[in-house]
Design a protein that fits this description.
Order of helices and strands: EHEHHHEEHHEHEHEHHHH
Shape: globular
Largest sheet: 7 strands, mixed
CATH class: Alpha Beta
Number of domains: 1
CATH topology: Rossmann fold
Distance between the termini: 12 Å
Strand content: 5-15%
Structural class: alpha/beta
Oligomer: single chain
Amino acid sequence: MSKTKTICFTNNKGGSGKSTACANLGYELASAGKKVLLVDGDMQLNLSLSFFDEEDVLAMAESEKNLYFAIKEKKDLKDYVVSTPYENLDLIPSSTLMSQVEYELFTMMQREFVLKKCLKSIKESDIYDYILIDAPPTLGTWVINILCATDYVIVPVEASPWGLFGLANMFDFLGGMQEMTEAKIMGVLITKVDERKNYYKQTREILENFDNIDVFQTFIHVDSAIEWAQDASKPVAVYKKSTRSSKEFQQLAKEVIQYGSRER
């Protein structure tokens, strides 16, 4: 059995902090000595932009060395890996052409398992401790592909009046896929918390009423340093290590590592 754990970040609602959480958890796991591969599965390229400037990201997106072309040609993804500027942390970049991936998949046999097959040799090689996949905010065939390639799911949820909107549909969707994937929900991550408002407490109370859904103890505050770090194409801990969100992502990485230890 592969030691590599594949985790996807998914929420069918945009603005949940999904790409931010994926990027910064990846960086913190790598900083803790884990070998990490990030897979940018979203046409918005936000995960790629977390580590490379816009010019480099667009160059990767316009080349044929990105996730879209690998999926289209059903190629082994080991040939599409790019080193980030950070030790232990690699990336498979996305493309704006990912908007067409549903169409490409529609014509393929066993279309739900294309990504799983493309990742097979990477996963079996055990080069990486973690593969983190940033999924787009949809519930289509491409997200089914991601879930079929995944061991665990992290669902980021924004602590806001609209943050929980559609979440029941998301859980129903995941539940309906049990015959195709063994992916488990590792936990819900509450993001964009402003403790001057009551939304965090309300959000946690509602989430804890869902059956069989764990909520991470760590939550991520609203922090302007996150936006400045994104603007600089850096993880928040690289941009400003002393900031509160940097410490929170570090704590989240500890929870994720401990989760894996409990499962052995």
